[in-house]
């Protein structure tokens, strides 16, 4: 049996987050992704975004985000229906242990463009994703760098509980960085 690659919009629901929606990634998002993810502050707050952002990285991200099947669902925080910009940031759910255990759990990841920091965008996006639970998870996990307490507040405001300390490699920083790990049990 072969798995066909299909468009993400056919596989992912649009999620209402109040002032904006979470929608599947479009090819037209690549330019704003490159601009926002190319900002050192955004890249250094993530595990995987390099800085400087290499040519073609945003387009590669878009291609990966729209292909199906995938182990990660990625949404754009889109404010265009409320007179906000079309791309405010990105949020994702990456399935964990699907092939081996299928424990119905995923890891939440997100970033918001610096122009929209401290406006409650990340909090609204995470809460909307938790409420919608589009992958029918029993648990969601998240990890934030310890030097980013704002992201920790986003998680605790959405009902995530602290699990413990760890560390992970940041591509942009070129180093291992201390993290806090959180869990949100669902259903």
UniProtKB/TrEMBL annotation:
Any Pfam family: Acetyltransf_3
Record Gene3D superfamilies: 3.40.630.30
Domain of life: Bacteria
Matches recorded under SUPFAM superfamilies: Acyl-CoA N-acyltransferases (Nat)
Residue intervals of the N-acetyltransferase domain: 40-187
Name of the protein described by the UniProt record: N-acetyltransferase
Lineage of the organism: Bacteria, Pseudomonadati, Pseudomonadota, Alphaproteobacteria, Rhodobacterales
């Amino acid at each position: 049996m072969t798995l066909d690659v299909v468009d993400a919009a056919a596989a992912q629901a649009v999620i209402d987050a109040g002032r904006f929606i979470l929608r599947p990634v479009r090819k037209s998002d690549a330019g704003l992704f490159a601009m926002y993810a190319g900002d050192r502050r955004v890249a250094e707050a993530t595990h995987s975004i390099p800085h400087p952002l290499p040519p073609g990285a945003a387009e590669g991200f878009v291609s990966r985000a729209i292909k199906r099947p995938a182990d990660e669902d990625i949404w754009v925080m889109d404010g265009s229906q409320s007179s906000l910009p079309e791309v405010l940031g990105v949020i994702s759910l990456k399935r964990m242990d699907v092939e081996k255990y299928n424990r119905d759990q995923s890891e939440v990841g997100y970033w918001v463009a610096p122009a929209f920091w401290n406006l409650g965008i990340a909090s609204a996006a995470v809460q909307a994703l938790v409420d919608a639970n589009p992958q029918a998870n029993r648990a969601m996990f998240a990890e934030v760098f310890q030097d980013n307490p704002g992201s920790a507040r986003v998680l605790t405001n959405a009902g995530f509980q602290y699990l413990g300390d760890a560390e992970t490699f940041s591509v942009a920083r070129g180093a291992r960085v201390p993290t806090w790990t959180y869990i949100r049990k669902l259903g």
